[in-house]
Amino acid sequence: MRTQLSVIIDRPAEEVFDYTLNHADQWSKSIVSDEVIEEKNGGGVGTTFRMVTEENGQEMIFRGEVTRWNRPSVARSFLKGDAFDIDVEYRFENMGYRTEVTQESRVLPKSIALKVVFLTAGWLFKGIGRRALQKDFETLKQQLETT
Fold first, then answer.
1. Against a cut of 0.90, is the pTM above it?
2. How far apart are CA 20 and CA 16, in angstroms?
3. Which InterPro entries does its entry note (predicted)?
């Protein structure tokens, strides 16, 4: 299941890049914690991390690795969880003093049962996920534009 959403933030790309990636637990309601396990290349490619999320009272733990890093224009990570993995990329388009942030993610279910659920009701999960990301992006925009 793929999801993509963008927001324009009235701040420079470098600032938006750093805050988006280093403070996700402050602007995303579903991220409980996000901690670096081993930093490589100044936080770039090869850096590993542990992310804990919570959805509807259910906690999920992911082990992630940064797979692409080109500050301040793109960052990509692959997160491994028990039930599914997530491939997520953030792109930051420098528009002078403004920045367009685009998140594109792909959820990869691991079990046959979950794959069937995604095939039959994926549209529902995608809609829920997009609405949650829209709210998170509104929070990100508000936090960055009021600092």
1. no
2. 6
3. START-like_dom_sf
